[in-house]
Design goal:
Length: about 250
């Protein structure tokens, strides 16, 4: 069967078979066979095509890598583990978002500590002005999911109150062009903080508040599937979330 993912990725980038072949220094007929006959290129060509098209290699050729190869690459995506969110150096959050050139994403219930940081808010605004897409997902304070999380953490209604506090602190940022806010009604197993291909993932542990739960620092690597799993989860929550009305 034809490789429709590769064909679609070419169209999305406005590339032709000839231009892709030229950039890879291969025969156009070779690229055509990759598409029409779903031939799998050599690894170096797969990596070059994925980089040129801005997608992951495993998206274009899901069966190209063995389970052992995907596992090895995924293991390499783990940069470090912090035992608690409070163990993450304060400036690490700013450095993370400062690296973003295309996407910043935040998926939390409240993430109050971010909204309280004027430097990070300034980074969000500056990145949005520079054309970076900034998306912030907060838990709907009136949802049963937020109420349940408050009970799980032993803080009760304080969870919803923190979300409302964050909204107040984000008042100016919510008026910034390029920054999108939505409410979600999702049971979160992790909070996700994204800057392009890097993530800080704050795990959720029953009976433990966010600041005392572990954080994983991840960086996407070609062939790995760990970061992709979290990014796909973020997109699913975003699709089902509700835009937050302005003040």
């Amino acid at each position: 069967m034809p490789n429709e993912r590769l064909r679609a990725a070419l169209l999305e980038q406005g590339l032709t078979i000839a231009t892709l072949a030229e950039s890879l220094d291969v025969d156009p007929k070779t690229v055509e066979r990759w598409i029409t006959k779903d031939r799998t290129p050599y690894r170096r060509h797969r990596y070059a095509v994925a980089s040129r098209l801005g997608v992951d290699e495993t998206f274009l050729w899901p069966d190209a890598l063995s389970n052992e190869q995907v596992t090895a690459a995924s293991s390499s995506e783990l940069v470090t583990i912090y035992p608690h969110r409070t163990s993450v150096p304060r400036d690490a959050w700013g450095r993370l978002f400062a690296t973003a050139k295309e996407e910043i994403g935040v998926l939390v219930y409240s993430g109050l500590f971010l909204s309280e940081d004027s430097g990070i808010q300034r980074t969000f605004a500056e990145k949005a002005e520079a054309g970076v897409r900034v998306r912030i997902l907060l838990g709907d304070p009136d949802s049963p999911q937020v109420a349940e999380r408050g009970d799980d953490e032993g803080v009760g209604d304080a969870q919803a109150a923190k979300i409302r506090n964050a909204l107040v602190l984000y008042k100016n940022l919510r008026r910034q062009d390029g920054v999108e806010f939505r409410f979600h009604r999702t049971v979160l197993y992790n909070s996700i903080y994204r800057a392009d291909d890097q993530l800080l993932v704050n795990t959720h542990v029953y009976g433990v508040t966010g600041p005392h739960a572990p954080v994983w620092h991840l960086r996407r690597i070609a062939g790995g599937d760990l970061v992709n799993t979290y990014l796909e989860s973020f997109e699913r929550v975003w699709e089902g979330a509700t835009p937050i009305a302005g003040d």
